[in-house]
Write a structure and sequence with these properties.
This protein has 220 residues and is mainly α. The chain has one domain. The protein contains 8 helices and 5 strands; from the N terminus they run H-H-H-H-E-E-E-H-H-H-H-E-E. Strands 1-2-3 form a 3-stranded antiparallel β-sheet. Strands 4-5 form a two-stranded antiparallel ribbon. It is globular and about 60 Å long.
Amino acid sequence: MNLGNTCFFNSAVQCLLATQPLVRYLLEQRHHLETNIDNPLGQGGALAATFAALAQDVWDGMGLLDGPPDAGDVQVPGEAGAISEPGGAAGGTGPSSGVLGERTSGRPARPPQAPHQRALVPSVLKAVIARFAPQFAGFGQQDSQELTAFLLDGIHEDLNRVLEKPPTEAPTGDDSADDAELATRSWETHLRRNQSVIVDLFQGQLRSRLECPSCGQVSA
């Protein structure tokens, strides 16, 4: 369910909740074993726990953990129509959200719905995100990619397996090293400070290349 003009939030969260490896990790409660409550860059585990609770609400009763992953047999959460404004008869079923019982547009109330047809109100998750990213505190339009980056980074820091990060190493200028070697060094440096399910599933490397059309100088 959208809260005000927060379709950017809804679309990002639904995409993440349809990422089965991440959802399985959360539904199996593995995040409890890896919560880094002392990480000053995290939220003491609050963001990861809130997102996990929302995943539980969304996937409750859908049997995701009953068998091997098969995208063809699993209905994507959020296929029931979104509602554009908060309101109506909301009753919570979990710590992360409220569940809307019926629409308030004047149409007849729907009969009781299956778990995957409920409209969830992710207000608690939105509030937790706003703690470390206050630009998302209101109900105006924002950039969905920016929200996704903040959300993934926050969950990563809550679940970072590196309890004591080593000092950041300054990159060394070695003109003899090829791109593959430099990429390997850079990734190894990153992993010394960052290890989590978010790193495992979402992070990687990009290579950019810029060539001057006048002198032919290449920067990569």
